[in-house]
Design brief:
heterodimer, A: alpha+beta, six-stranded mixed barrel, six-stranded mixed β-barrel, 22 strands, elongated, B: alpha/beta, Rossmann fold, six-stranded mixed beta sheet, 28% helix
C-alpha cells in the first residue's frame, strides 16, 4: 500500500488550502468545546479549592447584639461543625483625595490569629497586631483602586466618630469574592471595602464587648441546612436576629455561582451547536470531495484494488485532515481555555488557579468530528464503489435537467444564458444545492448566536438603567429611618428629587416552592424607581397586593390574581397571604414591590425608609458628597453612573469576551464552509467551464456563471440562516436566564446584517481564489483527461 | 490450435439511459486464443468497448455467458471480478488514466504492490523504453510517454491478457506507432494475449485476426496471413 500512501500525501499537498479550510472548520468546533469545558471545570475546581482551603462558611446570620455565651449553644445544634461569632458593621469611609463617599464593611478578627471560618488570604503585609486598634486589613480590589499599600492611611466614621486607620495587610476572602456595597447592583472596588480589624477595637467602638453581631457556621457533611437554620433562627430571635441563610443566598457566592452559571450555560449551549454544525459541514464537504474522486476510484478498482482497500485509502485521507483539525482545535481550545480561566480568575481575584485537564473532552470532540467525517466519506464511497469500474471511470451521466416553465415561455427572454445555466444547475442538483444552502445557513446562524449577546446586553442596560431605575444615586441608611429622613436628604445640596425606598426581607411561598427575596415599598407615583411591566411600559403600583418579578412568578408557578404566602423576616415575624397584582420586567434578581403605605401597614410600623433614591444636579455633586460624609446615619451612596460603568466592565469580562471568542470561531467555521463550497463546485464543473472557454467564452463570462451560482446560493441561505440564528439565540438566552440575571431576547437588525455580511465576505474572498483558479484552467488538459 | 482464453456465448448487454434502453451487445459469440493479437474495429457505439469492459471484469453482462479459460466471468460477483482483474488482466485506456499525483515509477508500483509475481516497475518501464523518465510526473510527460507508462503499468503484473481501448486514439502517428510497437513487443516476449480496440483501420495489419463490429455484433472476421510489424504501419 506504500504507493497509495504516496498518492495520499501528494493529494493532501495539492489540496492543502481546502484541507486546511476543512481542518479549520473542525478546529472551530473542537476548540469551542475544549475551551468551554476546560475553563468551566478549572474555575469550578478553583472555587472548590479556595472554599476548602479557606474554610468558607455554610450558614450566615446577623443579629443586633447577642452574648458570646450563645455561641456554645449554637455549636451544639446537631450538624454544626464550627461556629464563628464576630462583629460586622457598615460605616462610611473618608479617603484622602477621593470625593465620593465610600463604604466599609468592618469585620472583626480574633486577636492574633486567623478566624476559624472565612480565613483570609493575605496577599501583602500582615494581620493586625493584638492591641493595635488602628491597624486594618483591606480587600485587594479596594487597595488597588486607591493605590494603598501597607502603611497607607484612611479614615472611617465608626459609630459617629471619625477614626484614623492604617493599612497593615491586603487580603482576599472567599466570603467577598464579589463584594457589593449597600444599595448597589454591581461591585465597585473604589467605593466599597471590606475592612478587617481587631475585635477588641471594634467591640469597644460599637459597645459590643462580650457580644457579636454576625455569626457564621460550617456544617457537617450530612447536616440538613434547613434544620440548622430553623434552630439557629430560634436561638437568635430574641437578640434581634435577621433570618439566617445558606450559601445560595450569600451575595458573593450567589453572584459567583451566577457568573459560573452563565459560563456553564454558554458552554452547554454554543459549543455543542458549533461542534454539530462543524460535524455536519465536514460530513457534506468530504462527501463531495470523495465524490469528485470517482474516476480515480474506478481506476484503482480496474487495476485490481479491492473495495476495502480503496475505502481505507480515502478514510486515511480524511483521518489526516480531521487529525490536523483536532490538533489545531485542541491547541487553540486549550490556549483559549487557559486565557478565559485566567481572565475570570483575575476578575474574581482568585488567589490561585487550578487548571483541570479534560482529556475526555478532547477524545469526545475528536471522535465526533472523525465519526461525522467518515460517515460523510463512506456515504459517497458507497455510491461509487458499488459502480462497475467501467462506469465509475466515466464522468457521471449528466443529470436530467427539466424545463421549469412551459416550453412556450422562453426563459431566455427574461434571463441571460449564463443565468439559465445557473438556474438549471441548481435545480438539476437539488440535494447538492440544499446542502450548500444548509451549510451557509448554519454558518450565518452560529454567527448570529454569537453576535446577538452584545445587543441583548445593551437592551438590558437600557431597560434597567434608563427605563426603570432612573435615579442618579441611592443613599442607604445604617438602620431603617423614619419617613422624615427623606426630607433631610432632599434638603442636601444638589438634590433635585428624592423618593423613599423601604426594603423588607421575606420568604415568599407558593405550595412547596419558596424563595428568600426583598419586598420594596415605593411611592405610588414613583418617578425615579419606576416599575416597568412586561410590555416595557411604566406602570402605577396597585394600591393593594404585590407586584412580582415576572421571573419569580414563573418560578413560583403562580399568576396574577393568585395569592402567595409571605413570611416576614424582619420586625414581628408572621406569615401573611397577599395577592399578586402585577408582573414586573426586571433582569437582576427576583423581588417583590408594594405600595409604600401598604408595606408600612403590613409591617405594622410607622412609614420608614432604608434608603432614598435621588436625582442630582451634576454641578453640585461634590457638595452633596461632602454633606453625606458628615451624616453618621448613612451607610453608603450608590451611584448609577458608576454602577453602569462597572456593569459594563463586568460584562466585558463575563459576556463580551466569551461572545467575541465565539464570534471568531464562528467566523472561522463560516469561512471554511463557504470557501469549500466554492472550491468544490469549481472542481465539479471544471470540464464544463473549460468547454465553455473552448467555445469562446471569456474568463470573465465563465467566472460569472460560477459566481452567479455561489452568489444565489449564498443569498438564498441568508433568510433560513436568520431563522436558525434567532432560534439558537433564543435557546442560549433561555438557558442563560437565572434568578440573579436574565435578559430579554433582542436580536438587532444590525446583528442579522453583520452575520450575513461576514458570510458574504467569505464568499467574496472565495470568489477571488476561484477567479485565480479559473484563469489557470488548462483547457486542453481538462478536456482530454479525466482527473 | 492454441488454448482458448476467452469464449463468449450469446453475450448481451443492455444500458438503461434515462427512459431509453440501449442494446450495446446483441447475443455475441466469440473465441480468443492464447498469444493472439486481435484488433477490434468498428464505428462508435458498435459495442467494442462494452465487450472489452466485460472481458476485463470492469462491467457486468446483462445475459449470456463469458468464460476466461474454465472460469465463468458472468457468474462472478464484485469480489471475484476484482481478484480476476488483479491476477490476469492488464488495461490500457485511451486517456492513459494515470494518477497525476504519482510519478511514472509510482504509477507502475501501484499495480506491482498488489500482484503475485510482478516485474520490478523499472523493468516494466524499460520494456516500453522509458528508463530515463521513471521519476517524472504524468504532467511532465508527453502523451505517448504517458501511454507507455500506462502500458508498463498494465504489463508489470505479467497479465495473461492485455486489453487496450483506443491506445493510440489521443496520439500522433509517430507516437502511436511506438505504442503499438511496445504492445507487440510484450506479445512477442511474454506471450500475452493482446486485444486492441481502434478506429484506425491501418492498425489491423499487425493483428492475427481482425473483428469487425456493427450494431453490437461481430459482422465479419478477417484473418491476416502475415502480421506486419509496427514499423511497417503507415497512417
Amino acid at each position: 500500500m506504500r504507493t497509495l500512501d504516496i498518492k495520499l500525501f501528494r493529494d493532501l499537498v495539492r489540496l492543502w488550502a481546502q484541507a486546511l479550510a476543512i481542518a479549520l472548520v473542525i478546529a472551530g468546533g473542537v476548540s469551542t468545546v475544549v475551551l468551554a469545558v476546560g475553563s468551566l471545570r478549572s474555575l469550578e475546581e478553583t472555587r472548590i479549592a479556595y472554599y476548602e482551603r479557606h474554610q468558607f462558611a455554610d450558614v450566615f446570620a446577623l443579629v443586633r447584639r447577642a452574648p458570646k455565651t450563645l455561641l456554645t449553644q449554637i455549636a451544639e445544634i446537631p450538624g454544626v461543625a464550627a461556629v464563628q461569632g464576630r462583629i460586622a458593621k457598615l460605616a462610611l469611609l473618608d479617603i484622602p483625595q477621593f470625593s465620593e463617599p465610600a463604604t466599609g464593611l468592618f469585620i472583626s478578627l480574633p486577636e492574633d490569629r486567623q478566624p476559624a471560618l472565612n480565613r483570609l488570604y493575605i496577599r501583602l503585609g500582615r494581620m493586625p497586631e493584638p492591641g493595635r486598634g488602628d491597624e486594618v486589613v483591606v480587600t485587594e480590589g479596594f487597595a488597588k483602586a486607591h493605590a494603598f499599600r501597607p502603611g497607607s492611611h484612611f479614615a472611617a466614621i465608626l459609630n459617629g466618630r471619625k477614626r484614623d486607620l492604617v493599612v497593615v495587610g491586603i487580603a482576599l476572602s472567599p466570603e467577598f469574592i464579589y463584594a457589593i456595597g449597600p444599595g448597589d447592583r454591581m461591585p465597585d472596588e473604589r467605593r466599597f471595602a471590606i475592612v478587617w480589624m481587631s475585635e477588641k477595637a471594634l467591640a469597644s467602638v460599637y459597645n459590643l464587648d462580650g457580644a457579636f453581631s454576625s455569626v457564621i457556621l460550617s456544617l457537617m457533611r450530612d447536616a440538613s441546612e434547613g434544620e440548622v437554620i430553623t434552630r439557629l433562627d430560634a436561638l437568635l430571635d430574641r437578640y434581634g436576629g435577621q433570618a439566617a441563610y445558606g450559601r445560595e443566598d450569600q451575595t458573593s457566592h450567589a453572584f459567583l455561582e451566577h457568573g459560573l452559571d452563565m459560563l456553564r450555560n454558554m458552554s452547554r449551549t454554543l459549543p455543542p451547536i458549533f461542534l454539530l454544525v462543524a460535524a455536519f459541514l465536514i460530513n457534506v464537504t468530504l462527501s463531495r470531495i470523495v465524490a469528485l474522486e470517482r474516476e480515480q476510484i474506478g481506476l484503482l478498482k480496474a487495476l485490481g484494488y479491492r473495495n476495502a482497500a480503496v475505502a481505507w485509502h480515502y478514510i486515511k485521507f480524511i483521518v489526516v485532515i480531521v487529525t490536523i483539525g483536532v490538533v489545531i482545535g485542541s491547541a487553540a481550545g486549550t490556549w483559549l481555555g487557559t486565557f478565559v480561566t485566567e481572565m475570570y480568575g483575575d476578575f474574581y481575584r482568585f488567589p490561585f488557579r487550578v487548571f483541570v485537564q479534560s482529556s475526555d473532552v478532547y477524545v469526545a470532540a475528536a471522535a465526533l468530528s472523525l465519526g461525522a467525517a467518515i460517515v460523510g466519506a463512506v456515504r459517497a464511497l458507497r455510491d461509487i464503489v458499488t459502480l462497475p469500474p467501467a462506469v465509475a471511470m466515466q464522468p457521471p451521466a449528466p443529470p436530467r435537467f427539466r424545463r421549469l416553465l412551459p416550453a412556450n415561455f422562453a426563459i431566455r427572454n427574461v434571463l441571460s444564458q449564463p443565468a439559465v445555466m445557473m438556474v438549471r444547475n441548481i435545480s438539476g442538483h437539488p440535494i447538492r444545492a440544499m446542502f450548500t444552502i444548509a451549510g451557509m445557513s448554519l454558518a450565518t446562524g452560529i454567527l448570529i448566536a454569537s453576535l446577538f449577546l452584545n445587543g441583548t446586553m445593551e437592551a438590558l442596560i437600557d431597560v434597567t438603567y434608563f427605563l426603570s431605575d432612573r435615579q442618579d444615586a441611592t443613599v442607604s441608611f445604617v438602620e431603617r429611618r423614619p419617613l422624615k429622613a427623606v426630607n433631610q436628604i432632599a434638603r442636601l445640596p444638589g438634590i433635585l428629587a428624592a423618593e423613599p425606598f423601604r426594603e423588607v426581607p421575606v420568604r415568599i411561598r407558593n405550595g412547596n416552592i419558596d424563595r428568600r427575596i426583598m419586598i420594596s415599598g415605593r411611592p405610588r407615583d414613583a418617578d425615579l424607581n419606576r416599575i416597568i411591566d412586561t410590555d416595557l411600559h411604566p406602570v402605577v403600583l396597585p394600591e393593594a397586593g404585590l407586584a412580582l418579578s415576572s421571573w419569580l412568578v414563573h418560578i413560583l408557578g403562580t399568576q396574577v390574581g393568585d395569592f402567595v404566602e409571605i413570611d416576614l423576616l424582619e420586625g414581628r415575624r408572621r406569615t401573611v397571604s397577599l395577592p399578586v397584582t402585577a408582573l414586573v420586567e426586571d433582569y437582576f434578581g427576583i423581588q417583590g414591590m408594594m405600595h409604600f403605605d401598604a408595606l408600612a401597614r403590613l409591617m405594622r410600623e410607622a412609614p420608614a425608609v432604608n434608603s432614598v433614591s435621588v436625582s442630582l444636579d451634576a454641578n453640585e455633586r461634590d457638595r452633596f458628597y461632602d454633606a453625606i460624609k458628615s451624616m453618621p446615619t448613612v451607610s453608603g451612596v450608590a451611584l448609577q453612573r458608576v454602577s453602569l460603568a462597572n456593569f459594563r466592565d463586568a460584562l466585558a469580562v463575563l459576556v463580551t469576551t466569551m461572545a467575541n471568542i465565539y464570534i471568531g470561531l464562528a467566523a472561522v467555521i463560516a469561512f471554511g464552509v463557504v470557501y469549500n463550497s466554492a472550491r468544490i463546485s469549481l472542481s465539479e464543473r471544471a470540464r464544463e467551464l473549460a468547454s465553455l472557454r473552448v467555445l469562446g467564452f471569456t474568463r470573465g463570462e465563465v467566472l460569472r456563471i460560477l459566481l452567479l451560482e455561489l452568489a444565489v446560493l449564498t443569498l438564498l441561505a441568508q433568510p433560513p440562516g436568520w431563522a436558525i440564528g434567532y432560534g439558537l439565540a433564543w435557546t442560549l438566552q433561555t438557558k442563560m436566564a437565572g434568578e440573579l440575571m436574565r435578559t430579554r431576547l433582542v436580536v438587532e437588525h444590525s446583528t442579522y446584517v453583520l452575520a450575513s455580511a461576514m458570510v458574504i465576505a467569505a464568499a467574496l474572498f472565495s470568489a477571488l481564489v476561484v477567479r485565480r483558479r479559473i484563469n489557470q484552467l488548462d483547457l486542453v488538459t481538462v478536456l482530454k483527461t479525466r482527473d | 490450435m492454441a488454448d482458448l482464453v476467452f469464449s463468449a456465448r450469446a453475450l448481451t448487454k443492455t444500458y438503461t439511459s434515462g427512459e431509453t434502453q440501449v442494446l450495446a451487445l446483441r447475443a455475441l459469440d466469440l473465441e480468443i486464443f492464447a498469444g493472439e493479437v486481435v484488433v477490434l474495429l468498428g464505428p462508435s457505439g458498435s459495442g467494442k468497448s462494452t465487450l472489452l469492459n466485460i472481458m476485463g471484469g470492469l462491467d457486468h453482462a446483462t445475459s449470456g455467458q463469458l468464460f476466461f479459460r474454465d472460469q465463468e466471468l458472468t457468474n462472478l460477483d464484485d469480489r471475484g471480478l476484482t481478484a480476476y482483474r488483479r491476477q490476469h488482466v492488464g488495461f490500457v485506456f485511451q486517456f492513459y488514466n494515470l494518477i497525476p499525483s504519482l510519478t511514472a515509477y509510482e504509477n507502475v508500483a501501484l499495480v506491482t504492490e498488489i500482484s503475485d509475481h510482478p516485474m520490478r516497475p523499472d523493468e516494466a518501464l524499460a520494456l516500453v523504453g522509458l528508463e530515463p523518465r521513471v521519476h517524472h510526473f504524468p504532467a511532465q510527460l508527453s502523451g505517448g510517454e504517458q501511454q507507455r507508462v500506462a502500458i508498463a503499468r498494465a504489463i508489470a503484473k505479467r497479465p495473461d491478457v492485455l486489453l487496450c481501448d483506443e491506445p493510440t486514439g489521443a496520439l500522433d502517428s509517430k507516437t502511436g506507432i511506438r505504442v503499438i510497437e511496445a504492445l507487440l513487443g510484450i506479445n512477442a516476449q511474454l506471450g500475452t494475449t493482446v486485444l486492441i480496440i481502434t478506429h484506425n483501420a491501418s492498425i489491423q495489419d499487425v493483428a492475427d485476426r481482425v473483428l469487425f463490429f456493427a450494431d453490437g455484433q461481430i459482422s465479419r472476421v478477417h484473418k491476416n496471413k502475415a502480421r506486419r510489424t509496427a514499423a511497417e504501419l503507415v497512417w
